[in-house]
Amino acid sequence: MKRKGILVVVSGFSGAGKGTLMKQLVRTYDQYALSVSMTTRAPRPGETDGREYFFVSRDDFEEKIREHGLIEYAQYCGNYYGTPKAYVEKQLLDGRDVILEIEIQGALKVKNQFPSALLLFVMPPSIKELQRRLCGRGTETEEVIRARLSRAQAEAEGIEAYDYLVINDHLDTCVAQMHTLIQGAHCTPGRNGVFIEQIRNQLKELAKGE
Length: 210
Ligand code: ADP
Ligand code: 5GP
Hints:
Layout: E1 7-12, H1 18-28, E2 32-34, E3 37-39, E4 53-55, H2 58-66, E5 70-76, E6 79-84, H3 85-93, E7 97-101, H4 104-113, E8 118-123, H5 127-137, H6 142-156, E9 164-167, H7 171-185, H8 193-209
Parallel strand pairs: 1-7, 1-8, 2-7, 3-4, 8-9
Antiparallel strand pairs: 3-6, 5-6
Helix pairs in contact: 1-7
Bound molecules: adenosine-5'-diphosphate and guanosine-5'-monophosphate.
């Protein structure tokens, strides 16, 4: 029986290492499809349109909202971010696990629409290390870093909505743990309803024949 794809939502404080982890996850295991979001924020040095994000104007983003072309969207520190619908739907239909790296408001909207989505929250090993990574990345001004840390405080209040925490201390260990959790999620009864029904029906047929 063809396995259904799982929608995997990955969130975490800015600087926790989500982007780095996701790149390593898809590089290490070729079965995952990484959704590329749309955003109105400016590209960072080294980011390419269509790879990290689709970088668009506010007008274009709002047009996409009106067209119902996004699964979810949210505002984060003054910019829009959203998940294009077409790619995710196609990958799930093809049976691939699709990873959405999105913030918490979007994560909750996805959970409402797709109750079998798996929600992972990436934690830094400590807040000192989070600050070190966020400042060390060198891509944001001090003011933006402050806004992102303040946002982290609000996000920390919603962590219980997630299925699992993963601690990004050693990158490779964390990537391996995410892979194990996603593969484990394929084995829950809730995500295997059709197969369970088939087995039940076969047992009924068997009992009739006796
Ligand atoms: P996010 O996408 O969560 O905002 P990034 O992936 O951009 O975070 O990572 C923030 C910074 O931390 C980057 O400079 C990245 O190289 C670094 N980083 C990520 N994971 C680790 C790790 N496990 N150990 C040390 N540094 C890390
Ligand atoms: P960054 O600017 O650091 O790339 O992303 C800022 C925040 O936006 C991160 O928490 C990231 O996970 C989130 N984000 C990225 N894409 C999306 C998206 O499509 N939808 C939502 N809701 N959040 C997103």
